[in-house]
Amino acid sequence: QVQLVDSGGGLVQAGGSLRLSCAASGLTFSAYAMSWFRQAPGKEREFVAVATSRGGTVYRDSVKGRFTISRDNAENTVYLQMSSLKPEDTAVYYCAALRAEFLLNYRMPSQYDYWGQGTQVTVSS
Questions:
Q1: Rounded CA separation 102/83 (Å)
Q2: What is the pLDDT along the chain (125 residues), one digit of tens a residue?
Q3: Fewest CB within 10 A of the end CB: N or C in the chain?
């Protein structure tokens, strides 16, 4: 049974930092690209960052230079280091696993096979 467990969210002031973690089990981790998405109240789920199995990364424009995605294939874990947080970063953050053959569609939530339960990030002004 595949399981993705998100953790690390919380309440932080603007300008602060948080590190999210996603521990995966039950899948061949190295065969999947791993992404973070987020969803704010009343909005659609949106792509934040992806880390391919070979370590390549892509970010949405609004988080470039502030967020860093990384993965540890030995520990089956993906991280999202978030710095210089802004109130508009407030959302539930989800990790997700995408089979390598669908990598071109990494921005599309519908293409992902597995999702974490989400972790709330709240940035106060």
A1: 29
A2: 999 999 999 999 999 999 999 999 999 999 999 999 999 999 999 999 999 988 899 999 999 999 999 999 999 999 999 999 999 999 999 999 999 888 889 999 999 999 999 999 999 99
A3: N
